[in-house]
Amino acid sequence: MEEEEEEEVEEEEAHAEVLEFWQEGLARLVRDPLLCDLPAQVTPEEISSQVALEYGQAMTVRVRRADAPEAPLPVVVVQNASVLDLKRALRRFVQLRQEREGGIQHISWRYLWRTYCLTFGGEKLTDDRKKLREYGIRNRDEVTFVKKIRK
């Protein structure tokens, strides 16, 4: 029994060492000029997105709430992303930001997409399967988050 407990303690210590090593490595990566815009508690997903941006494999779509003066959210998606990909990336962006800053812990995305929609150039992005480029959306373009008008 004691032997099993010692093994568990050793595994926990080994895990803690690997985790610390991983975090130190990420911290060094984030100091790189290419990745300096990333937060200190960066995820591997965010690093991949930043590298994809640098190589032209991804683009930043800025998402702004129509009724809010704050700066738009810079959401990274692959070049051939669909509207659904943008919605998923926006959800992930908001979740990561909430984890880091605290605040509202749960957002009903189902309700949100029933009540709001994204628009670009006055056109609603209603077809989730349609590619962003089909709507004319390019790197650094801004889409707006607006409340749907009931008929």
Class by SSE composition: alpha+beta
- CATH homolog superfamily of the domain at 56-147: Phosphatidylinositol 3-kinase Catalytic Subunit, Chain A, domain 1
Report the count of strand segments: 5
Main sheet attributes: strand count, strand direction, barrel closure: 5 strands, mixed
The fold-level CATH name of the domain at 56-147 is: Ubiquitin-like (UB roll)
CATH architecture of the domain at 56-147: Roll
**Roughly how many Å apart are the termini?**
69 Å
**Low-pLDDT runs:** none
Overall morphology: elongated
Order of helices and strands: HHEEHHEEE
- CATH class label of the domain at 56-147: Alpha Beta
Strand order of the largest sheet: 2-1-5-3-4
Radius of gyration: 20 Å
Helix content: 40-55%
Tally of DSSP helical segments: 4
Write down the overall mean pLDDT: 85
Description:
With 151 residues, the protein is α+β, with helices and mostly antiparallel strands. The chain has a domain at 56-147: Roll (Ubiquitin-like (UB roll)), CATH 3.10.20.90. It has helices at residues 2-30, 44-54, 83-101, 109-115, and strands at 58-65, 73-78, 116-120, 123-124, 142-147. Strands 2-1-5-3-4 form a five-stranded mixed beta sheet. The longest helix is centred in the first third of the chain and has 29 residues, at 2-30. The model has no long low-confidence stretch (mean pLDDT 85). This is Ubiquitin-like domain-containing protein. One of its GO terms (biological process) is mRNA splicing, via spliceosome. InterPro entries: SNRNP25 (IPR039690), SNRNP25_ubiquitin (IPR040610), Ubiquitin-like_dom (IPR000626), Ubiquitin-like_domsf (IPR029071).
